[in-house]
Amino acid sequence: MLRSLVGSEMCIRDRSQMARYSLSRELDKHAMDVRAVAAGPDGSIMTASRDDMVRVWSPAAEEDEQPAMELVGHTHFIYSIMVSQGGKVISGDGDGKVIVWDLEKGEVGTVLAGHNDASTQKRAVTSLAMANERLITCGWDFSVRVWADTECVAVHKGHTLSLIHI
Predict the structure, then answer these.
(1) Do 47 and 19 meet the contact criterion of CB atoms below 8 Å apart?
(2) Helix, strand or coil, per DSSP, at residue 51
(3) Which helix (H) or strand (E) element contains residue 35?
(4) Which of 41, 50, 129, 144 is the most exposed place for a label (fewest CB within 10 A)?
(5) 28: nearest Cα among 67, 63, 62, 58
(6) Is the pTM of this model over 0.85?
(7) What are 86-124's pLDDT values in tens digits?
(8) How far apart are CA 139 and CA 161, in angstroms?
(9) DSSP 92-142
(10) Residue 83 and residue 59: Cα distance in Å, rounded?
């Protein structure tokens, strides 16, 4: 039995009613630790690592699993990755850059730069999100930024510590 407190109610659940998960794949080709994972609309998996690389993995498991694509273009650890509703892969790194990848060519599509606090040298992009077809980013520079296509249209400051997640 599993007991949990939800609001002011005690919930008791039989463990047999809970979903059971088991390891189905190991995606272990990064040279350093993976900091972010995202899923594509086709079931593909994107992993981002401190080895400065994004790897795209096929939805189907293979015997000797190799990435379907390796995306090179970041110059610092990658802290965040997401897939937009339109299927664009977007990643953010420790140099304050966000890259929107061109998956058809397997290369950097658009680079969005802006997370860089000159006074503190804090600049890592730690989280990415989409809202109303706009990209929202946050980072160590104490700011949240809103992007429309390639332009930063709003910068929200006021935090006194680095932002980790949106």
Answers:
(1) no
(2) coil
(3) strand 34-39
(4) 41
(5) 67
(6) no
(7) 899 999 999 999 999 999 999 999 999 988 876 666 788
(8) 10
(9) EETTSEEEEEETTTTEEEEEEE---BTTTTB--EEEEEEETTEEEEEETTS
(10) 15
